[in-house]
Amino acid sequence: MSRVATQKMVEGTPDAVGASAGNGAADALARSRTADAAVMVRPRDFGFNPETAIDNEFLASSGSSSSEQIAHRANVEFQTMLDRLRAEEIEILVLEPNPTDLTRVPDAVFPNNWFSTEHDGTLLVYPMMAPNRRAERRIDDLVQLLRDAGRLVREVVLVAPLDENERFLEGTGALVIDHATRTVYASRSQRCHPEQFQHFIRSRGYREGILFNTAGSSGHPIYHTNVMMNLGQEYAVVCPEAIRDPADRDRVMQSLRRSFDVIDISMPQMEKHFCGNVLELRNRRNEPRIILSARAEQGFTPEQRRRLSAHGKLVSIDLDTIEQIGGGSARCMLAEVFCPRAC
Q1: For strand 183-187 and strand 208-212, is the pairing parallel, antiparallel, or unpaired?
Q2: Which end of the chain is more exposed for a tag (fewer CB within 10 A), N or C?
Protein backbone atom coordinates (compact mmCIF):
# COMPACT_ATOMS: atom_id res chain seq x y z
CA MET A 1 0.00 0.00 0.00
CA SER A 2 1.25 3.45 -0.86
CA ARG A 3 2.33 5.66 2.00
CA VAL A 4 0.55 9.03 2.12
CA ALA A 5 2.49 10.94 4.72
CA THR A 6 0.58 14.21 4.56
CA GLN A 7 -2.79 12.88 3.51
CA LYS A 8 -5.59 11.45 5.57
CA MET A 9 -6.45 7.93 4.43
CA VAL A 10 -10.11 7.06 5.01
CA GLU A 11 -11.35 3.57 4.30
CA GLY A 12 -14.59 3.64 2.37
CA THR A 13 -17.12 2.52 4.94
CA PRO A 14 -20.46 4.36 5.04
CA ASP A 15 -19.73 5.79 8.49
CA ALA A 16 -16.19 6.85 7.66
CA VAL A 17 -16.99 8.48 4.36
CA GLY A 18 -20.37 9.96 5.05
CA ALA A 19 -19.04 13.00 6.88
CA SER A 20 -16.76 14.02 4.04
CA ALA A 21 -19.33 13.31 1.34
CA GLY A 22 -22.14 15.26 2.89
CA ASN A 23 -20.53 18.45 4.18
CA GLY A 24 -22.23 21.69 3.22
CA ALA A 25 -19.19 23.20 1.50
CA ALA A 26 -19.00 20.30 -0.93
CA ASP A 27 -22.73 20.40 -1.64
CA ALA A 28 -22.48 24.10 -2.44
CA LEU A 29 -19.84 23.59 -5.10
CA ALA A 30 -20.91 23.96 -8.72
CA ARG A 31 -20.55 20.52 -10.26
CA SER A 32 -19.73 20.67 -13.94
CA ARG A 33 -20.12 17.42 -15.83
CA THR A 34 -16.80 17.99 -17.55
CA ALA A 35 -13.33 18.63 -16.15
CA ASP A 36 -10.82 21.28 -17.15
CA ALA A 37 -7.81 18.97 -16.76
CA ALA A 38 -6.88 15.30 -16.82
CA VAL A 39 -4.12 12.95 -15.72
CA MET A 40 -2.38 10.65 -18.19
CA VAL A 41 0.16 7.96 -17.29
CA ARG A 42 3.03 7.37 -19.68
CA PRO A 43 3.24 3.67 -20.61
CA ARG A 44 6.60 2.14 -19.75
CA ASP A 45 5.92 -1.53 -20.43
CA PHE A 46 2.56 -1.52 -22.20
CA GLY A 47 1.53 -4.87 -23.60
CA PHE A 48 -1.01 -7.66 -23.69
CA ASN A 49 -2.29 -8.42 -20.20
CA PRO A 50 -3.56 -12.00 -19.75
CA GLU A 51 -5.09 -11.11 -16.38
CA THR A 52 -7.48 -8.59 -17.95
CA ALA A 53 -8.08 -10.66 -21.08
CA ILE A 54 -10.27 -12.93 -18.92
CA ASP A 55 -13.26 -10.62 -19.39
CA ASN A 56 -12.11 -7.83 -21.74
CA GLU A 57 -13.27 -8.90 -25.18
CA PHE A 58 -12.15 -5.61 -26.71
CA LEU A 59 -8.47 -6.54 -26.71
CA ALA A 60 -6.58 -8.87 -29.02
CA SER A 61 -3.32 -10.78 -28.75
CA SER A 62 -0.10 -9.14 -29.85
CA GLY A 63 0.27 -11.40 -32.87
CA SER A 64 3.75 -11.46 -34.40
CA SER A 65 4.87 -8.14 -32.90
CA SER A 66 7.50 -8.24 -30.20
CA SER A 67 6.86 -6.75 -26.77
CA GLU A 68 9.43 -4.05 -27.55
CA GLN A 69 7.65 -3.10 -30.79
CA ILE A 70 4.29 -2.92 -29.05
CA ALA A 71 5.63 -0.81 -26.19
CA HIS A 72 7.32 1.55 -28.66
CA ARG A 73 4.17 2.02 -30.75
CA ALA A 74 2.10 2.62 -27.60
CA ASN A 75 4.51 5.29 -26.44
CA VAL A 76 4.36 7.01 -29.83
CA GLU A 77 0.55 7.01 -29.67
CA PHE A 78 0.64 8.31 -26.10
CA GLN A 79 3.00 11.17 -26.96
CA THR A 80 0.98 12.06 -30.06
CA MET A 81 -2.17 12.24 -27.95
CA LEU A 82 -0.44 14.30 -25.27
CA ASP A 83 0.93 16.77 -27.82
CA ARG A 84 -2.42 17.05 -29.57
CA LEU A 85 -4.37 17.73 -26.37
CA ARG A 86 -1.88 20.31 -25.16
CA ALA A 87 -2.02 21.99 -28.58
CA GLU A 88 -5.77 22.33 -27.94
CA GLU A 89 -4.86 24.11 -24.67
CA ILE A 90 -6.13 21.28 -22.48
CA GLU A 91 -4.29 20.95 -19.19
CA ILE A 92 -2.80 17.46 -19.04
CA LEU A 93 -0.81 16.28 -16.01
CA VAL A 94 1.55 13.40 -16.77
CA LEU A 95 2.36 10.79 -14.16
CA GLU A 96 5.72 9.51 -15.36
CA PRO A 97 6.89 5.92 -14.67
CA ASN A 98 8.59 5.39 -11.33
CA PRO A 99 12.28 4.83 -12.16
CA THR A 100 12.92 2.90 -8.94
CA ASP A 101 9.96 0.51 -9.21
CA LEU A 102 10.31 -1.92 -12.11
CA THR A 103 7.11 -3.85 -11.40
CA ARG A 104 5.49 -4.60 -14.74
CA VAL A 105 2.25 -2.65 -15.18
CA PRO A 106 1.07 -3.29 -18.76
CA ASP A 107 -2.22 -1.37 -18.34
CA ALA A 108 -0.90 1.68 -16.48
CA VAL A 109 -1.87 3.85 -19.45
CA PHE A 110 -5.51 3.49 -18.25
CA PRO A 111 -5.42 5.38 -14.91
CA ASN A 112 -9.12 6.18 -14.63
CA ASN A 113 -9.72 2.65 -13.33
CA TRP A 114 -7.79 3.13 -10.08
CA PHE A 115 -8.65 6.69 -9.09
CA SER A 116 -11.09 9.52 -9.60
CA THR A 117 -11.41 13.03 -8.18
CA GLU A 118 -14.34 15.07 -6.94
CA HIS A 119 -15.21 18.75 -6.98
CA ASP A 120 -14.51 19.15 -3.25
CA GLY A 121 -10.91 17.95 -3.58
CA THR A 122 -11.49 14.32 -2.63
CA LEU A 123 -9.28 11.71 -4.29
CA LEU A 124 -10.97 8.31 -4.48
CA VAL A 125 -8.96 5.09 -4.85
CA TYR A 126 -10.68 1.92 -6.08
CA PRO A 127 -10.34 -1.88 -5.71
CA MET A 128 -8.95 -3.49 -8.88
CA MET A 129 -9.77 -6.95 -10.19
CA ALA A 130 -6.50 -7.95 -11.90
CA PRO A 131 -3.73 -8.47 -9.31
CA ASN A 132 -1.08 -7.08 -11.66
CA ARG A 133 -3.04 -3.83 -12.05
CA ARG A 134 -3.01 -3.08 -8.33
CA ALA A 135 0.60 -1.92 -8.57
CA GLU A 136 -0.63 0.99 -10.72
CA ARG A 137 -2.00 2.73 -7.61
CA ARG A 138 0.73 5.27 -6.88
CA ILE A 139 -1.18 7.38 -4.41
CA ASP A 140 1.72 9.44 -3.04
CA ASP A 141 2.99 10.29 -6.51
CA LEU A 142 -0.47 11.26 -7.71
CA VAL A 143 -1.16 13.51 -4.73
CA GLN A 144 2.17 15.25 -5.32
CA LEU A 145 1.44 15.65 -9.04
CA LEU A 146 -1.94 17.25 -8.34
CA ARG A 147 -0.60 19.56 -5.64
CA ASP A 148 2.35 20.61 -7.81
CA ALA A 149 -0.21 21.61 -10.44
CA GLY A 150 -1.94 23.82 -7.89
CA ARG A 151 -4.86 21.52 -7.20
CA LEU A 152 -6.47 21.06 -3.81
CA VAL A 153 -6.34 17.47 -2.55
CA ARG A 154 -8.41 17.60 0.63
CA GLU A 155 -8.36 13.91 1.49
CA VAL A 156 -7.75 10.48 0.04
CA VAL A 157 -10.60 7.98 0.40
CA LEU A 158 -10.19 4.25 -0.16
CA VAL A 159 -13.47 3.06 -1.66
CA ALA A 160 -12.48 -0.40 -0.37
CA PRO A 161 -9.33 -1.88 1.17
CA LEU A 162 -6.49 -1.98 -1.35
CA ASP A 163 -6.27 -5.76 -0.93
CA GLU A 164 -9.98 -6.33 -1.68
CA ASN A 165 -10.23 -9.64 -3.56
CA GLU A 166 -13.93 -10.08 -4.27
CA ARG A 167 -15.95 -6.87 -4.51
CA PHE A 168 -14.29 -4.82 -7.23
CA LEU A 169 -15.25 -1.38 -8.50
CA GLU A 170 -12.90 -0.05 -11.14
CA GLY A 171 -13.28 3.71 -11.01
CA THR A 172 -14.73 5.60 -13.93
CA GLY A 173 -14.31 2.51 -16.06
CA ALA A 174 -17.13 0.94 -14.06
CA LEU A 175 -18.86 4.20 -13.10
CA VAL A 176 -20.25 6.76 -15.54
CA ILE A 177 -21.02 9.76 -13.36
CA ASP A 178 -23.37 12.66 -14.02
CA HIS A 179 -21.92 15.16 -11.54
CA ALA A 180 -24.66 17.71 -12.20
CA THR A 181 -27.59 15.51 -11.21
CA ARG A 182 -25.55 13.29 -8.85
CA THR A 183 -26.55 10.18 -10.82
CA VAL A 184 -24.22 7.24 -11.45
CA TYR A 185 -24.71 4.68 -14.23
CA ALA A 186 -22.97 1.29 -14.11
CA SER A 187 -23.12 -2.04 -15.89
CA ARG A 188 -22.92 -5.09 -13.64
CA SER A 189 -19.73 -7.10 -14.30
CA GLN A 190 -16.79 -8.75 -12.56
CA ARG A 191 -15.32 -5.25 -12.27
CA CYS A 192 -18.48 -3.68 -10.85
CA HIS A 193 -19.74 -5.67 -7.88
CA PRO A 194 -23.36 -4.74 -7.01
CA GLU A 195 -22.70 -4.47 -3.28
CA GLN A 196 -19.63 -2.30 -3.81
CA PHE A 197 -21.59 -0.13 -6.23
CA GLN A 198 -24.47 0.40 -3.81
CA HIS A 199 -22.01 1.13 -1.01
CA PHE A 200 -20.33 3.74 -3.22
CA ILE A 201 -23.65 5.45 -3.97
CA ARG A 202 -24.62 5.59 -0.30
CA SER A 203 -21.26 6.55 1.13
CA ARG A 204 -20.48 9.25 -1.42
CA GLY A 205 -23.92 10.82 -1.16
CA TYR A 206 -25.09 10.34 -4.76
CA ARG A 207 -28.77 10.91 -5.46
CA GLU A 208 -29.29 7.83 -7.62
CA GLY A 209 -27.38 4.77 -8.77
CA ILE A 210 -28.63 3.03 -11.91
CA LEU A 211 -27.16 -0.47 -12.16
CA PHE A 212 -28.04 -2.58 -15.19
CA ASN A 213 -27.09 -5.80 -16.96
CA THR A 214 -25.30 -5.72 -20.29
CA ALA A 215 -24.21 -8.20 -22.93
CA GLY A 216 -21.98 -7.81 -25.96
CA SER A 217 -22.35 -9.72 -29.21
CA SER A 218 -20.80 -12.77 -27.50
CA GLY A 219 -23.48 -12.73 -24.82
CA HIS A 220 -20.98 -11.90 -22.07
CA PRO A 221 -21.23 -8.78 -19.89
CA ILE A 222 -19.49 -5.60 -21.05
CA TYR A 223 -16.34 -5.41 -18.91
CA HIS A 224 -16.51 -1.63 -18.29
CA THR A 225 -19.46 0.74 -18.56
CA ASN A 226 -17.36 3.44 -20.20
CA VAL A 227 -16.91 1.48 -23.41
CA MET A 228 -20.68 1.46 -24.02
CA MET A 229 -21.67 4.93 -22.77
CA ASN A 230 -20.23 8.33 -21.91
CA LEU A 231 -21.56 11.71 -20.85
CA GLY A 232 -20.54 15.18 -21.96
CA GLN A 233 -21.88 18.45 -20.65
CA GLU A 234 -24.96 18.28 -22.86
CA TYR A 235 -24.74 15.00 -24.81
CA ALA A 236 -24.69 11.29 -24.03
CA VAL A 237 -23.40 8.49 -26.25
CA VAL A 238 -24.87 5.10 -25.42
CA CYS A 239 -25.32 1.64 -26.94
CA PRO A 240 -28.91 0.70 -25.99
CA GLU A 241 -28.55 -2.65 -27.74
CA ALA A 242 -26.01 -3.72 -25.11
CA ILE A 243 -28.62 -3.29 -22.34
CA ARG A 244 -30.50 -6.49 -22.93
CA ASP A 245 -33.26 -6.20 -20.33
CA PRO A 246 -36.05 -3.92 -21.66
CA ALA A 247 -36.83 -2.54 -18.19
CA ASP A 248 -33.15 -1.70 -17.59
CA ARG A 249 -32.90 -0.13 -21.03
CA ASP A 250 -36.00 2.00 -20.54
CA ARG A 251 -34.78 3.22 -17.15
CA VAL A 252 -31.35 4.20 -18.50
CA MET A 253 -32.68 5.88 -21.63
CA GLN A 254 -35.40 7.80 -19.80
CA SER A 255 -32.89 9.05 -17.27
CA LEU A 256 -30.43 10.14 -19.97
CA ARG A 257 -33.07 11.87 -22.08
CA ARG A 258 -34.05 14.09 -19.17
CA SER A 259 -30.64 15.79 -19.29
CA PHE A 260 -28.88 15.02 -22.57
CA ASP A 261 -28.95 14.99 -26.33
CA VAL A 262 -28.70 11.20 -26.57
CA ILE A 263 -26.72 9.71 -29.47
CA ASP A 264 -27.43 6.00 -29.90
CA ILE A 265 -24.63 3.79 -31.24
CA SER A 266 -24.83 0.22 -32.51
CA MET A 267 -23.09 -2.87 -31.15
CA PRO A 268 -20.49 -2.87 -33.98
CA GLN A 269 -19.81 0.84 -33.39
CA MET A 270 -19.16 0.05 -29.73
CA GLU A 271 -17.17 -3.16 -30.16
CA LYS A 272 -15.20 -2.51 -33.35
CA HIS A 273 -14.75 1.27 -33.22
CA PHE A 274 -14.77 2.29 -29.52
CA CYS A 275 -17.45 4.89 -30.27
CA GLY A 276 -18.64 4.65 -26.68
CA ASN A 277 -15.21 5.45 -25.24
CA VAL A 278 -14.92 9.20 -25.76
CA LEU A 279 -14.54 12.07 -23.27
CA GLU A 280 -15.35 15.76 -23.24
CA LEU A 281 -12.88 18.10 -21.52
CA ARG A 282 -12.71 21.90 -21.32
CA ASN A 283 -9.57 23.76 -22.36
CA ARG A 284 -8.01 26.87 -20.81
CA ARG A 285 -10.48 29.05 -22.73
CA ASN A 286 -13.37 26.97 -21.29
CA GLU A 287 -14.05 25.60 -24.77
CA PRO A 288 -15.39 22.03 -25.05
CA ARG A 289 -13.18 19.44 -26.70
CA ILE A 290 -14.40 15.90 -27.36
CA ILE A 291 -11.50 13.44 -27.27
CA LEU A 292 -11.77 10.22 -29.26
CA SER A 293 -9.67 7.83 -31.30
CA ALA A 294 -9.38 8.00 -35.08
CA ARG A 295 -11.13 4.63 -35.18
CA ALA A 296 -14.03 6.02 -33.17
CA GLU A 297 -14.32 9.13 -35.33
CA GLN A 298 -14.46 6.96 -38.45
CA GLY A 299 -16.98 4.66 -36.78
CA PHE A 300 -19.56 7.39 -36.18
CA THR A 301 -21.96 8.07 -39.03
CA PRO A 302 -21.80 11.53 -40.64
CA GLU A 303 -25.02 12.49 -38.86
CA GLN A 304 -23.66 11.30 -35.50
CA ARG A 305 -20.43 13.26 -36.05
CA ARG A 306 -22.49 16.34 -36.89
CA ARG A 307 -24.50 16.01 -33.68
CA LEU A 308 -21.43 15.32 -31.58
CA SER A 309 -19.54 18.24 -33.14
CA ALA A 310 -22.39 20.56 -32.19
CA HIS A 311 -21.33 20.03 -28.57
CA GLY A 312 -17.59 20.55 -29.01
CA LYS A 313 -14.65 20.28 -31.36
CA LEU A 314 -13.72 16.67 -32.10
CA VAL A 315 -10.08 15.87 -31.33
CA SER A 316 -9.15 12.46 -32.73
CA ILE A 317 -5.89 10.54 -32.36
CA ASP A 318 -4.66 7.26 -33.86
CA LEU A 319 -4.64 4.81 -30.96
CA ASP A 320 -4.73 1.52 -32.87
CA THR A 321 -2.04 -0.26 -30.84
CA ILE A 322 -3.41 0.78 -27.46
CA GLU A 323 -6.94 -0.15 -28.53
CA GLN A 324 -6.01 -3.51 -30.02
CA ILE A 325 -3.58 -4.72 -27.35
CA GLY A 326 -5.02 -2.92 -24.30
CA GLY A 327 -8.73 -3.13 -25.04
CA GLY A 328 -9.31 0.52 -24.11
CA SER A 329 -9.36 3.80 -25.99
CA ALA A 330 -9.15 7.57 -25.51
CA ARG A 331 -11.48 7.90 -22.55
CA CYS A 332 -9.70 5.11 -20.64
CA MET A 333 -6.42 7.02 -20.98
CA LEU A 334 -7.79 10.16 -19.32
CA ALA A 335 -8.55 10.48 -15.61
CA GLU A 336 -10.43 13.74 -15.10
CA VAL A 337 -9.23 16.29 -12.55
CA PHE A 338 -12.24 17.83 -10.79
CA CYS A 339 -10.18 18.98 -7.79
CA PRO A 340 -10.45 22.78 -7.51
CA ARG A 341 -7.46 25.04 -7.87
CA ALA A 342 -5.90 25.81 -4.50
CA CYS A 343 -6.22 29.44 -3.41
Answers
A1: parallel
A2: C
In DSSP terms, which residues pair with 236 in a beta bridge?
A: 231, 262
Distance CA 214, CA 217 (A): 10
pLDDT at 5: 31
Longest dimension (CA), the chain: 56
- State the Cα–Cα distance between residues 29 and 8, nearest whole angstrom: 22
Could you tell me which residues are beta bridge partners of residue 282?
A: 288
Strand order in the sheet with 313-317: 279-282, 288-293, 313-317
Exposure letters 155-177 (e unless 16+ CB within 10 A, then b): bbbbbbebebeebbbbbbbbbbb
Strands 235-238 and 261-264 come out as parallel
Q: What are the E-state strand segments in the chain?
A: 9-11, 37-41, 91-95, 115-117, 122-125, 155-158, 176-178, 183-187, 208-212, 229-231, 235-238, 261-264, 279-282, 288-293, 313-317, 335-336
The end-to-end CA distance of the chain, in Å, is 30
